[in-house]
Amino acid sequence: MTENPLPACPECAGAYAYEMGSLLICPECGHEWPLAGAGQEEAPAERVVKDAVGNVLADGDTVTVTKGLKVKGSPTGIKAGTKVRNIRLVEGVDGHDIDCRIEGFGPMQLKSGVVRKV
Q: How far apart are CA 53 and CA 35, in angstroms?
């Protein structure tokens, strides 16, 4: 019989923890915890988002659009120089890492490479 190489449950100290995807699960008490946090404490890497000219962006910043953007379903699109206030940085799809609300268009996501910090 082999010894369980996984750590004991932090809730009940049960020795029968098992892996399921990226989680460890204790069958005795039902507690789940991340596999990455098992044994060692790792600080998550801080993600740095930069604008088109290299300035670091943060939540709540105001940016301007640097080039005209086509918007699906809109005949005009977003013009260069449009000011966008109060942005939020997100893990977006296809490089769209800014979540914002643009006057006249509503909520949308932008790529950080097409904006410049004001």
A: 38
Alpha carbon of residue 112 to chain centroid? 13
Distance from C-alpha of 61 to C-alpha of 99, rounded to nearest angstrom: 11
How many C-beta neighbours within 10 Å does residue 23 have? 14
Name the E strands within the chain. Answer: 18-20, 23-25, 32-34, 63-65, 83-84, 88-89, 98-102, 106-110, 115-117
Q: What is the pLDDT of residues 20-33, one digit of tens each?
A: 888 899 999 888 88
Task: State the CB neighbour count (10 A cutoff) for residue 43.
Answer: 5
Residues 6+ apart with CB under 8 A from 113: 51, 52, 95
